Amino acid sequence: MTTANHVRTHGRRTSRPSGDDREAAILTTAERLLSERPLSEISVDDLARGAGISRPTFYFYFKSKDAVLLSLLEPMIARADSEFDGAVQRLPSNPRGMWRSGLKAFFTAFGSHRAVARAGTEALATSPEFRAMWQDYMGKWIDQTAAMITAERARGAAPDTIPALSLSTALNQMNERTMIATLADEKPAVDHDHLVDTLAHIWVTSIYGETPAAALKPAAPQ
């Protein structure tokens, strides 16, 4: 076997990481470092060194370490958001299950990457770009929840009490604060294993009133 053939056979030895590989390495490094210390204590040099690239190369992929965090947070938020797809149509068939599954999906999306989620809560105070994105999603979730509450009231499953938008705003903001406390291991905080059931209980009783059991029956076939 000639030297040239040997090199071709073991092409990995001379191949260079692709752009996607470098970007993934930066993101992997960031998540690993966030599990050890806050973003404020992580430098661009730390991220570049962990990814095996130079500082100038880092800036080819991300404009800042905040941009790296945003790239980690975006897919988590998108996963939580996807639970709302078709939710209004699915709700009448299993109201309690629908609300609970939505809360579980939301918590799972962030709970599976707790270090990144914790960094996101810190970024709300320091990153205008992330704060604007989060506020947009919160506004969307509040509006969608209000529409679902209104639909439940329209079919006679939930009492028409306080304005749906006000109730939705309070419930979603409660979710945000309660989940942050649990993910950040604050004291006091709701236990991780009890969080979804606790929030689901509050949501169901708030939306359906004092006698949720009757209201939570599936809609009658049309």
From TrEMBL:
InterPro entries: EthR_C, Homeodomain-like_sf, HTH-type_TetR-like_transc_reg, HTH_TetR, Tet_transcr_reg_TetR-rel_C_sf. Residues 20-80 form the HTH tetR-type domain. The keyword Endoplasmic reticulum does not apply. It comes from Mycolicibacillus trivialis. PROSITE patterns: HTH_TETR_2. Residues 43-62 bind DNA. Pfam families: EthR_C (PF21313), TetR_N (PF00440). This is TetR family transcriptional regulator. GO terms for molecular function: DNA-binding transcription factor activity; transcription cis-regulatory region binding. The keyword DNA-binding applies. The lineage of its organism: Bacteria, Bacillati, Actinomycetota, Actinomycetes, Mycobacteriales. Keywords: DNA-binding, Transcription, Transcription regulation. One of its GO terms (biological process) is negative regulation of DNA-templated transcription. Homodimer. It comes from the Bacteria. Residues 1-21 are annotated as: Disordered.
